[in-house]
Amino acid sequence: MEGTSSQRSGKATKRSTHQWTSTEDAILVHSLLELVNQGWSKDNGFRSGYLQQLEKWMAEKIMNCEIKGDPHIKSIMKTLKTHYREVANMLGHAGSGFGWDDVNKCVTCDLDVWNGWLKGHKDAVGLRNKPFPHFDELALIFGKDRATGEGAEAPADAVETIDVEETIGKEASDAYFSMHVGNNDDGMVNGVSLEAWKFFKSQCFLTILNMAKLGEVCEGAKEEIGKLATCFQHLADNAKRKMQVYDAIAAIEGLIDEDALKVGAIISTDIDKTNFLFSISDRMKKLYVQQLLNGSI
């Protein structure tokens, strides 16, 4: 994401271009999750006015912010959605030779595999071994849209997916929501809105199809449902904790806004750093943040 510039069609101007920093990336993703939590999501993205809302939040969190909803945020949103779709497609092809480096947050594969993939996926150019630190959060933001654009299923593949949905889809989703949603009056799941979980079924089907043949999945449906529930709960917990990083840092006395944003971006893009921050006392948090800012750890 860092280094992505946005511009209007035609000749670029100073106002129409923006070079995104890692800190701005993190704040934008955090703001997108807030949109999801507040019910801005709809079937094909977000409802009207979301760019203006994001622009407002970015201005509140970044001093002298010059980022505009249109063209800056609009442009990077298109890039983010394309990159997420391509990475998700690569990881969704079982036995294709793609892997995920969870430390560096990037797609890995042999050069031969990569060159073969690019022949049919031009939008994936440059994504091999490229850090994609916010993939987990973008799964909550864009996950439900994976079946659109180039990621759409071919008719023959869709038939197989429909079969899976009829046999285990309802049981899987009912079991998951029964465990984690229940009859919550506030419509929230561990701090994340129900809208954020609409992508669950499509992700569920893709994961199941990659794990075993259809018949084997049906026989072991209950076991796989438990695994999927654990997987998605872990994803939600990670996203929720990352969203709490800025609140924890803001509570540290004596920390100026610029340093808070900088260290927030450092911590929120690394789940190990995020978990460590919440495992130590308030006094140790201050020391930890100071050492991160000084580059001593």
Q: How many helices?
A: 13
Beta-strand content: 5-15%
Helix content: 55-70%
Oligomerization: single chain
Mean pLDDT: 74
Largest sheet: 2 strands, antiparallel
Tell me the number of strands: 8
SSE topology string: EEHEEHHEEHHHEEHHHHHHH
Radius of gyration from the alpha-carbon trace, in angstroms:
20 Å
Strand arrangement in the largest pleated sheet:
1-2
Structural class designation:
mainly alpha
Give the overall silhouette.
globular
Question: How far apart are the first and last residues' alpha carbons, in Å?
Answer: 24 Å
Low-confidence stretches: 2-12, 145-174, 176-183
Features:
globular; mainly alpha; 297 residues; two-stranded antiparallel sheet; disordered N terminus; 8 strands
How would you characterize this protein structure?
By secondary structure, the chain is mainly α. It is built from 13 helices and 8 strands. The protein has a two-stranded antiparallel sheet with strand order 1-2. A hairpin with a 2-residue loop joins strand 3 and strand 4. Helix 1 crosses helix 2, helix 1 packs parallel to helix 5 and helix 6 packs across helix 7. The two termini are about 25 Å apart. The N terminus is likely disordered.
